[in-house]
Give the backbone structure.
Amino acid sequence: MGNEESPQITRRATRLSSSTPVTSNEVETEKITKPYKLTVNDFVFGGEKLSFNDLLSSFPARGNQIRELLRLLGPVNSPMLPLFVYGDPSTGKTSTILQIFRHLNRPFVYASCLTCYSLQILFESVLDQLLLHNKNAANGYSSARRCVKPSDFVNFLRGDLTSVIEKLKSLKKVGPNKSAGKPSGNMLYLIFDNLELIREWDKSSTALSFMFNLYDVLKMHEVGLIFISNTSPDTYYSNMGYTEHVPVYFPEYTEDDLRQILMRNQPNRKLYSSFLDVVLRPFCRTTRRVDELSTAFSPLFRKYCEPLSDLASVPNEEMKRRLFSHFRPHIAPSLNEIFWVPSKSSTEAETNKDTTLKGSTRKSEVGDHFAQIDFHMSTSAKYLLISAFLASRNPATLDASLFDSTGGSDSRKRKRKASEKSIEQKEVAEQELLMKGPGTFPLERLLAIFQCITSAADSFDEDEHENDDLRAGGDGGLMSDVLLQLSSLCNANFIIKGGSCPLEGSTRYRSTVSEDLALKVARSLKFPLPNYLYRR
Amino acid sequence: MGTENLAEKAQILIRSRLCSPNFIFKPLSDSSDSNYSKLKFIISSSITEACNNSILLLGPRGSGKVAVLELVLSDLLEEYPDTITVIRLNGLLHSEDNSALKEIARQLCMEHHLLFSKMASFDDNSQFMIAMLRECGLAHKTVIFALDEFDLFAQAVVVGVSCRLDADQLLEKRVRSRFSHRKLLFLPPSKEDVQRLLEHILSLPMDSSLACDYAAEFNEKLQSILADKRFKEIISNYLNSNSTTNHLLRFLFIAISNMDLKSGFLSLENFKAALSSIQRQPKQECIKDCSILELYILVCMKRLEVREQNSYNFSSVMKEYKSVHDSFPTSDYYAQNVCLRAFEHLLQRELICFADNRGHTQSIEFRQVKLVVSYAELQEGLKSYRSCPAILLKLIDR
């Protein structure tokens, strides 16, 4: 369930503390980091061993990486070549490194390219932290230094780093580090997280080669650089200035590692272990990310425990079997969905329709229990959805023949013709359809189809009073109502507003609804959708 | 405790050596035909003869061009303390006129308290520099101008540093002629040089704060390692891919970090471990990180490519996935949304990427994608995957 929780929380806490610009210096470091230090670094000398164990135990399955990083960081005050730490998302790169620094008690500056989303902000954030500058109302939330160009940044950085390192050195002279809060050593480490995002920035190639060459440009031995990236170093290769750094790789967790991680912080370990026996292997085949697995497991575990009266009981073999037979039907459907809609199990669906519906668009193949899902949409919205789907699927040239009362036979003829075509040609057409995706359509066409199918639906079954309502709406205030519905469908992402057509200048729309969902909606309206679909 | 302390000191010493290029390139510059001597000769002669000179230092990245230049400059600064002003510009930082001029002015003012009024007379000269800087900036190479300042018009030494051997071809004709034949090539160190370098970097000094007998023992062990055939194999294996000095330094850095502080001496294992940790195969690692479903998607894409269907997107991959599953039913058949998530993971991992940057309005399912792993890599990866389903290996083979 919340296994990943404790590292996550601490990580966030450290991130927070590192983003408040106080990490790298004497007094402030003491203040800020004291709460953590009490747990991890209470002793100065004798506690070293223990805290290392704490570090290891808080990151199961990361022992090798922690040891490797500690070796590369080296003893106090030893210069370091830049490190390049990489691995998939949610493999614990950032949290491991930050915890290592907590363990080592060394000063560092952390900047993430995710929060600092441009070069200028990144530069200014680093400089702010170095200068212990706090953005607040008094200074109008401005940075200490305005710094846009890399050349300015290097000059500022050099100056600021020197002064900080001087302070660290003088601190050491004043008292040999006896208190726990004082940073040890006079090395300062700069940590740049989410480096892969720089590739999407403006002037990314110069920015990247600048970042990679920062160590050579600075030429300062007291500075250690650590880059953290989600993607491997080979994705940075380009013909411009990629300098290799010392690689540290965080592999994705194996099944056993995942079990260890998920077992952490579980109140009833035996019960959870028997639960993991059932679910971990099948789920691991689809994804190996801790975050995704833990969110998938937390509701499942609740379901698993449902027959139990006492959650603290230790399951025996017989009970495990019983739990399993109760639980088994839930595994397959949950494997095939990527998020959980809490209202789904309770059939009185009172929750917001957007999530339910969006969930069901994605979960279009899940099967029978979705057939009963109730669409909380007004009838006209449903018709609008169907007409958007038709407009996206069918070629515009066929509209007349499809919706004309005399056109029915015509379309059937076309269908036969299509089937007479050689298989090869058909395949090519199918391929094209797959590649192109849903087509776009202007608003006018949507409204025309909408009117056609609502009137057609009326003729299908006269006594459906919903349709009477609709007709009343449709005939009277059609435009305003329908446009309102359209905008809400756009908001729910069923219909996407595309770019405007360069020739006509009007906005074009595109329907994202899958065929299954459209058919389901049509079924709920008793609307014969398949008759209107042009089959290629 | 004693050895540990000593070992730590030794480690710090060697690590700081590895991080200071000045130390590393010292021994390589002794001989008279080294780049160091040549460069020093050219620059010092132009200082003494008060003539105009330009030199290009060319060589692969990490071969110590800047380090040698810095060595020369620091020596010359000692020799002629009053007559030299060094202005260091970097193509990465100062590739545009504005920042370059500003930087030149800044460095000049800082070093010599030059008045800004002098900038005007300096302008013609700097115009020339900027022109070249722009060209070199295109190649994003470090450009260092050592400008001799006592006659601003006639006597300037321009030293350009680039890792592109054709850097002079990038220059304007007028500029290129100035570099005429003064090019210094930096070649990777020879085998003997590597050996000398290793000894130079790794052996401890006998006359330092380190205990003498420890240093002696350390050096003795080191000698035996250096003489070891297996060690030579490791080194030559490593330098096969890239034999520049920086590359070697990175390797040594990891080896030194691996040093066991308890025993206090380097061992062959340290170097072996360093080799395995620095020679990475990122694509293989990525494939190993995949889940089974992600592998299925990769294999399906590969099959599409083998069939010479050169453009495909998620939907067509899904179609292939379905047909694969129809012919070989397994339990690994998942709903489209789960597959889409796996697909997104692959995109994030950059095992696949979008074929073009257009079509941002389209949803991911319909954007064209392509594989960025080769057939061999994928096959290799599947074979070494821990519990790879046999069916996948079968599917990729045909």
Q: What stands out?
A: Residues 1-49, 343-371, 406-418, 462-477 of chain A have pLDDT under 50 and may be disordered. Chain A has three domains: 5-250, 255-335, 377-532. Residues 59 and 96 of chain A are 7 Å apart (CA to CA).
